[in-house]
Amino acid sequence: MNGYTIAIVGAGLVGERLVSELRRREFPIQELRVLARSARTVEMAGEAFEVGVAEPDAFEGVDFAFFAGTEGEKGAAVQLASEAISRGAVVIDNGSDFRLDDEVPLIVPEVNEDALENHNGLIANANCSTTQMVVTLAPLAKAFGLRKVVVSTYQAVSGSGRGGVEALEDGRDDVYPKQIAGNAIPLIGSIGEDGLSTEERKMVLESRKILSLPGLEVHATTVRIPVHTGHAESIYVEVGRDVELAEVLEVFGSAPGIVFSGEADDFPTPLEAAGESGTFVGRIRVEGNVINYWCVSDNLLKGAATNAVQIAESLVKARV
Ligand SMILES: NC(=O)c1ccc[n+]([C@@H]2O[C@H](COP(=O)([O-])OP(=O)(O)OC[C@H]3O[C@@H](n4cnc5c(N)ncnc54)[C@H](OP(=O)(O)O)[C@@H]3O)[C@@H](O)[C@H]2O)c1
């Protein structure tokens, strides 16, 4: 086995991180194709690629197809995922089109790797702010049980792709509803009839699916801030019994995927988390059955590319 043939659909911020994570984690690769809307030569993560046009035949011979294009009816995954699957590829989709489909596993490997069993060729990667939250909620759920979660986010502009970075750095004005530089915007996506934004609804529904807790009470307020990369979250959790701070530190200190200094009052920041693949926690406070903490992660890595590559690694491991 000389490695797998990989296609990355999308040459944007997530596509580039997929290249760097596949290389950094030494995923066995025979051929790496990058596909986008137009053919051209690009440099991604220090490598030159002849980008091909994303069309059905471009998936011939592909083992794993990582989708990181745009979402919706005309988006890459809706248009092309089934074409890739019918040609024998396993699709790992970074977008939101299929995440809540009952037939599609929604995977954060530290939390629900088992749900990969019996997939139908399509696996969804979770929303970035949801991923880092469930990495921290899962060990609390296992140790103490969960009753209620209240989260407020502080989300970086790179979460909106290249356009978000241009809005912060160049003043591009068609990405956010109000100026982002020097500001904080408490609306990510659009507001639904229930008053929730698209991003808030993702955090509620995706968390329930990944944690297999369909009735979990989750309240989210999602906010875009003028930070380049790294989403931060303030998380309030009511657990199933009164707990001691030492127990919580022990749980966070030994949970997979969590980076924790061991000090309750330490605090990670987006600048420190950017470029790292873990989920960082700090500012841990405990009162009765309530745990409050701060959680930070790189939205392009654990929030997208790292998690996607971990899913492929889990599939390779299961085949052995
Ligand atoms: N940024 C994050 O933190 C993050 C986290 C989790 C998930 N995601 C999801 O990951 C996906 C990519 O995000 P991004 O931040 O990388 O966006 P981005 O920087 O805006 O890049 C999007 C890329 O997708 C390509 N593309 C768009 N529509 C396509 C189509 N129909 N067929 C083929 N390629 C297409 C574009 O191609 P051209 O260059 O040819 O125009 C571009 O290279 C989105 O679904 C996003 O929601 C992003």
Report the end-to-end length measured between terminal Cα atoms.
12 Å
**The named CATH superfamily of the largest domain:** Dihydrodipicolinate Reductase, domain 2
Broad structural category: alpha/beta
Give the oligomer, counting copies of the same chain as homo and different chains as hetero: single chain
Hetero compounds:
NADP nicotinamide-adenine-dinucleotide phosphate
The tally of helices reads 9
Question: Helix-strand pattern, N to C?
Answer: EHEEEEHEEHEHEHHEEHEHEEH
For this structure, what is the CATH class of the largest domain?
Alpha Beta
- The proportion of residues in beta strands is 25-35%
Count structural domains.
Answer: 2
Residue runs with pLDDT of under 50 for 5 or more positions: none
Mean pLDDT: 97
* Rg over CA atoms: 19 Å
Shape from CA axes?
Answer: globular
Q: Give the strand order, joined by hyphens, for the main sheet.
A: 3-4-2-1-5-6-8-7
Instruction: Say what the CATH topology of the largest domain is.
Output: Dihydrodipicolinate Reductase, domain 2
Helix content: 25-40%
CATH architecture of the largest domain: 2-Layer Sandwich
Number of strands: 14
Report the sheet with the most strands, covering strand number, pairing sense and barrel closure: 8 strands, mixed
